[in-house]
Amino acid sequence: EVGVRAGGGNDIQWCFSQVKGAVDDDVAEADIISTVEFNHSGELLATGDKGGRVVIFQQEQENKTQSHSRGEYNVYSTFQSHEPEFDYLKSLEIEEKINKIRWLPQKNAAQFLLSTNDKTIKLWKISERDKRPEGYNLKEEDGRYRDPTTVTTLRVPVFRPMDLMVEASPRRIFANAHTYHINSISINSDYETYLSADDLRINLWHLEITDRSFNIVDIKPANMEELTEVITAAEFHPNSCNTFVYSSSKGTIRLCDMRASALCDRHSKLFEEPEDPSNRSFFSEIISSISDVKFSHSGRYMMTRDYLSVKIWDLNMENRPVETYQVHEYLRSKLCSLYENDCIFDKFECCWNGSDSIVMTGSYNNFFRMFDRNTKRDITLEASRENNKPRTVLKPRKVCASGKRKKDEISVDSLDFNKKILHTAWHPKENIIAVATTNNLYIFQDKMN
Amino acid sequence: MKVNKTAFSLSAHPVMSELHVGTVALQCSPSAVFVWEMEDKVISPEKAEEAKLKARYPHLGQKPGGSDFLRKRLQKGQKYFDSGDYNMAKAKMKNKQLPTAAPDKTEVTGDHIPTPQDLPQRKPSLVASKLAG
């Protein structure tokens, strides 16, 4: 029997911590969460939504008296990152939906992040202001100018403390470099450059330079009739600044080395699991499309997510993954309806924990799954307001694929396919996870002592 | 009788993933490899789903992931006649009361030729995210 036993020695016991967002069932489209990302220290947690807004949460400093729980995440800053635009040439709307947020490592007092919609990437600076100058000679406190003839003495203005104000300002706008829709951005380990990938091309940027970018991958065929695959995700290697990978709609991953040539159309490595031709069906290619690719923190492995599974690849072995985890195999016998309601095209993301020992991904019915690579155990949990009490351990869920449904199990036909968890994030150091349902953000923590 | 061979091998693969309906669970040592022959009538669930889909949509293309599908993906988003049409559509979403000019029901794009009074203000009021509430 698979499942993480509560109370086991090394098993994590997940507890509800917080939930953000509206309670009502009537979800405005703008409130649909489209990306979730912790920063490098885990102190900040950013979300992006379909309305082009970014909300950043900050973890409270740990309270010495409250040793049983870690700090809560509270709103730190919120701003409108992107707005809808109109592409005059194609007469198409450019959605303001935030596709991805990526944090830069902190170099000074301010925080920086990249956010992108389908066409434009923006570098945002988030800075704190906790003091303001007072005692100007020519201005009153409310800002009105004083009549210079009334000034009889001079004073030196001083800084006085004020209520903390967090300001977000766009520092760079990287526009007009993508004909197709941007699906990924990834910051290089050199912390100076980053890549952006759309369906057919990948560009390399310098964070300081907005009027130029280098095209490093171009898979657009000369004749569009010959188009057979698109780029679905891309990421820089965490340690090697010359290495990146990109995944395709055909289930392949290509690793490229920028030292080999300026245009990395020829891959250095091609990762693909051979398919049994007798098992091929109409759905094979669609469900093999990779929706997310993530390097492990160590840089030795990478994880891919396709419709039904999560695969771990060793960068030294191209011909098959070293581990495969089934996320919701019971959906294989529902592919026809999932194709009809378009769910088969849902793009699930995946993530690693800080030590690369556990991987997590979302599913339907607001379920999410975790796979422990060492113990080989897996667990299904649910993000729901019914498990609202902090420090109560979440109960594992079980889907009954066929046959007699046991008590507490849910049958496949009862699953709500509108409740999808596409975006999840794991704190880089602690066992704290952020799970996004359609319009709510859940934060879970492991039970301490 | 034709026999559909389905090979199922237990290799030194570290994870024995969930088996889907239609195969049989085997207990054996990691070094053994079994080929389990199945009768013609036992089809994989994926192929059964494919048959279902083809029955409902007999004209579905031979190449599933082919050019048409990908090209539709590349051009996502609703096409508008022009920027005026786009702005009118946006105004209709945000402001339920439209000006009283009679809409021309035969027009495919847009409702009527906009006059300066009809056009919305350039920047609509920004609503904060409910996550920050």
Automatic annotation (TrEMBL), chain A:
Keywords: Repeat, WD repeat
GO cellular component, as recorded: protein phosphatase type 2A complex
PROSITE patterns (UniProt xref): PR55_1, PR55_2
Keyword Membrane: no
GO terms, molecular function: protein phosphatase regulator activity
InterPro entries recorded: PP2A_PR55 (IPR000009), PP2A_PR55_CS (IPR018067), WD40/YVTN_repeat-like_dom_sf (IPR015943), WD40_repeat_dom_sf (IPR036322), WD40_rpt (IPR001680)
Superkingdom of origin organism: Eukaryota
SUPFAM superfamilies reported for this sequence: WD40 repeat-like
PANTHER family: PROTEIN PHOSPHATASE PP2A REGULATORY SUBUNIT B (PTHR11871)
Homology family: Belongs to the phosphatase 2A regulatory subunit B family.
Protein name per UniProt: Serine/threonine-protein phosphatase 2A 55 kDa regulatory subunit B
UniProtKB/TrEMBL annotation, chain B:
UniProt KW Cell cycle keyword: yes
Gene Ontology BP annotations: cell division
Domain of life, source organism: Eukaryota
Renumbered residue ranges of the record's region Disordered: 94-133
Family in the record: Belongs to the endosulfine family.
Function: Protein phosphatase inhibitor that specifically inhibits protein phosphatase 2A (PP2A) during mitosis.
Swiss-Prot/TrEMBL keywords: Cell cycle, Cell division, Cytoplasm, Mitosis, Phosphoprotein, Protein phosphatase inhibitor
Xref: InterPro entries: Endosulphine
Pfam families: Endosulfine
Gene that encodes it: ARPP19
Subcellular location: Cytoplasm
Protein name in the entry: cAMP regulated phosphoprotein 19
Lineage: Eukaryota, Metazoa, Chordata, Craniata, Vertebrata
One cellular component term from this protein's GO annotations in UniProt: cytoplasm
GO molecular function: protein phosphatase inhibitor activity
